[in-house]
Amino acid sequence: MLPTIAREADTVVMIDQRKLPAQEIYVRCKTAPEVARAIKTMVIRGAPAIGVAAAMGIALGVRRSKSTGTQKLAAEFHKICELMAATRPTAVNLFWAIERMKRAFAESAQAGQSVDQIKDRLDAEAQAIHDEDVASCRAMGAYGAEVVPADARILTHCNAGALATAGYGTALGVIRGAVEKGKRVAVFADETRPFLQGARLTAWELVRDGIDTTIITDNMSGALMRQGRVDLVVVGADRIAANGDTANKIGTYGVAVLARQHDIPFYVAAPLSTIDLDTPDGRHIPIEERSAREVTHVGSSQLAPAGARIWNPAFDVTPHELIAGIITERGIFRAPYTESLKRAFEQHAGTLG
Ligand code: MRU
């Protein structure tokens, strides 16, 4: 399986997703601020992977602390959490992972554990977040495979693969799950302007796995659907509101509208850690805006004239009514989402992190 991110004794190691597919190089972060910077600059990206990186960055930062008392350690810990929280606002897995680390710290401190024991506990919690994410993706893949026809042409947008998670992927997990069940799958990967996660990362992952892959630019999906060449759309998510409205990579909304126009089922695959019941609907999801340079340039080549204004929202919101189902590690949830998503958490209270 692809090594997206791993913790080693005094570093957090991640494959540099800005450099793929041309170069396969690894970035070694030695401090929490270095991990935060790696998240912000998209060395690592994808909602679940961002959560794992933040948790590992927090554990690393605390591990390196020289504080000898719990109170001083707690102050440092909270500063590191704030640093991580300021990296990327839309992916709710980031805040979910930080909350888990805060709970682990509080439980450990309340139990009167030593500084060294607290450090061990945080390392273990970060590793658990990593391992649970892989398990969730595999479960999602198994559930999602059921909605994939025996001979399927699937369109996906952005990269919701092994690189965007601790491994295996959410949307690409569904594709991998279908392939493992013996289905014949051909994938269309949207290029995904401006950061090109589809052309660079999704295609790289799928080709490595020997899955039939065709890259299209974002403006080609309408023509493809109109020609009857797409059976199913499956995408990932950065945050799913309580009513099912889903924030995902910019361009997802357009794909969903086109899918509806052509009667093609549009599925979202995401772990429960991406579902945010505290956000009532899509209008309340904060949307990150990124630098103009991502739009004006590809690598070092300038495409657009200086002086033009640039709008670069990293995500859009697909309204719940366009979504055929939300594939999670606990099964597939359907409309009305306000009820089904709430039930998903109630049923599993106590077993969820
Ligand atoms: O800006 P990115 O590359 O972090 O955006 C990633 C996406 O939009 C993914 O589809 C989403 O995070 C789901 S990843 C399993």
Structure explained in plain terms:
This protein has 353 residues and is an alpha/beta fold. It has helices at 32-40, 47-63, 70-85, 92-110, 115-145, 171-180, 197-208, 221-226, 252-261, 293-296, 337-347; strands at 5-8, 11-15, 26-29, 151-156, 184-190, 212-216, 232-235, 239-241, 246-249, 266-269, 275-276, 297-298, 301-302, 315-318, 325-328, 331-333. The chain is built from eleven helices and 16 strands. Strands 6-5-4-7-10-15-16 form a seven-stranded mixed beta sheet, sandwiched between helices. The protein has a four-stranded mixed beta sheet with strand order 11-8-9-14, covered by helices on one side. Helix 2 runs parallel beside helix 4, helix 2 (47-63) packs antiparallel against helix 5 (115-145) and helix 4 packs antiparallel against helix 5. Bound molecules: 5-S-methyl-1-O-phosphono-5-thio-D-ribulose.
